[in-house]
Amino acid sequence: MEQNAKIVSADLAALRVIRYPDPRLMEICTALDVVDDSLRAFVERMGELMFTGRGVGLAAPQVGVTVRLFVASPTFTPEDRRVYINPRIVSAEGKQDGDEGCLSFPEITCRVKRHETVTIRAQDLAGRWFEETASELTARIFEHEMDHLDGRLLVDRMGTVAKLANRRALNELREKYEEAN
Ligand SMILES: [Zn+2]
Question: How far is the CA of 4 from the centre of ligand 1 (A)?
Answer without folding.
Answer: 23
